[in-house]
Design goal:
elongated; 4 helices
Amino acid sequence: MARSTLDFLIDMVDKFYTEEDYRKAIVRFLEICDAEPGTPEHEEALRLTRLMEKYENMSCYERRHLN
C-alpha cells in the first residue's frame, strides 16, 4: 500500500500545521475508526486520535499562527 501524505505527516511531525491537515485527519480517522486492534490501521487511528486531541487543545491564538 502506498503511503499517503497524511501518513508521512504523522510520522514526521508531532502536530498539525494547518486546519486542512486537521480536517484530513478527521476524514481518515472516520475511515479507519473500526479497525481491529493490532492492525496498522488501528495504530494509525490511535496516532490520529492523539494528534487531533493536541490540536483541539491548542488555543485559537496558537492555531492562528499555524495557518
